[in-house]
């Protein structure tokens, strides 16, 4: 009785938010002691022996996996009456309503509660004993309804993910057959089908050797909407692609349902101006899809979240879904042929699969992006309102990838581009498998049963792991046929190493067979030539050497590559509204590797001495690289300079304190990182002198930082200064700031160039 009473007391002490976490995920919040739930379960179900209770919490040497498995053994002994699905939904909606009321009543302590892992709500203390049994039964009924293990919040370290094992047989490619009305049964008979032409092409050993050793030949072409394109390929017989002025949907060889759904889904982007004979594509989508449908690699560095981001997302979703539907239709059609074939017939005619099932890998930065992609897939698969497709785990997906509009602070004012990028759920640690079969979609499919994997760089990195780790897996990447990397510029602000790590582990031979039928595997996969058939679609908001390197060094598509290479004519300096001189000082570096040290030495020897005088107070130093920031911070401390600093890792209190010191002039220098500006976009007041330690990654950040000077009501415009350090290796960034003409002039000069311009020029 004592233990049961103690368990009830523990349950009463839990807030409704904690109870909801226990009910949904089957375990306590990681902030709380892991013994809490074990004691609670033991008190609620006293038929478990004391020895088992002691052994479950006996030592810290047990692994986390063992603790979870022991917990599930406890749950497996429980017996509950089956509840209908509608009752579960009602209970969950009621608990969510109660939670929202509790949060509204404790707004003052919300921020502290989140930082400390959650606080107890005083209104939750007086609970009845009936809540003990009800809460535990809801946990079990939820787990039984899902048919899988529990999961926890992906933002709390290592996670045990939810995967849908309930619908495994329904979405198996090996055990299903083509339905005549569900797809294009005769897709494999179309010789002009781009999918068939690309995947059925048999390369020779000589061609593979040429692609591995010989340099690529390139040619240029001017397209109406995309502008200047660079076509490159090692195989000389591939000709330059021409832009289609008009495109008929029926000539694109789309899978049967997509021909009718695409015009409806894409209608929102079409205006009365863009209506020639083709009314289903915008001019940008028409040219992009023309390249995608030719299965060439594509690099488009002019993606804008405000202007064309959703247009581009819909275009590559159409291409990815069309590819998956055609590939699965071919497999299902061959299943029927194999079933009806005569004994002793040749089985090589049915090679239609890779070594693993995932065909498309989509890398996006935030959960909101994954949510929009899945919604686009669903819209493209639903022919009309009467024929809704069956989407498994849809409610769970909306709960984990959706967002609450009330979570956003009401008075937060940020630029429009910031609002567009950081809309919705901006958690950057996620991954989800999607299986599509005829009229159904399966979310949370295991990777080896998925057709499409949507993940963030961090989410996919934690699965791939690092060399030496026991638990790592990258076999599911072995047969990826389309790789889509959207918003690549944001990964520069997150961690670009995750992208490079992915590119090193894609299209490698798997370490295990994973139950594959080798008689159905294409020869290109068996020969380890998958990377030569993989199409890579890379979308970014800017040109950057690191992004260019991925496209040039990690894309081996035999069909060739297409890169958009438009040069900026004016630059972001034209958007500076304050009148101040811009001084661009050139530093000479022998190589790219020596630029970092050369810039630091140039700064401390020639630039910093000019600003040491007290007259040059209120100096903000903009530092794009965090490593340069740490180096400068350590040097400033060593020299005992009067400065303050903050970066993306600084706490809110430290940032407020530094801003106040800088505004009042108590600190002469302020070190300021680019990633902090990217994620916060604060207006820094009190700036009189600007130093760009390096040109910004985003060109519009240059004008934003310069325009912060107008926030200072000092009226001493003549004392404002702006100094920029650059080298010949910063040509792309420099052109984005000052324009291509000025860049050419500045790079031709071998001496340090002092260029004085104003915002009106």
From TrEMBL:
Residues 48-162, 333-352 are annotated as: Disordered. Residues 295-562 form the UTP25 NTP hydrolase-like domain. One of its GO terms (molecular function) is rRNA binding. Residues 572-756 form the UTP25 C-terminal domain. GO terms for cellular component: small-subunit processome. It is found in: Nucleus, Nucleolus. Residues 152-162, 342-352 have a biased composition (Basic and acidic residues). Keywords: Developmental protein, Nucleus, Phosphoprotein. Interacts with CAPN3; the interaction is required for CAPN3 translocation to the nucleolus. Component of the ribosomal small subunit processome for the biogenesis of ribosomes, functions in pre-ribosomal RNA (pre-rRNA) processing. Essential for embryonic development in part through the regulation of p53 pathway. Controls the expansion growth of digestive organs and liver. Also involved in the sympathetic neuronal development. Mediates, with CAPN3, the proteasome-independent degradation of p53/TP53. This is U3 small nucleolar RNA-associated protein 25 homolog. It comes from Falcunculus frontatus. The lineage of its organism: Eukaryota, Metazoa, Chordata, Craniata, Vertebrata.
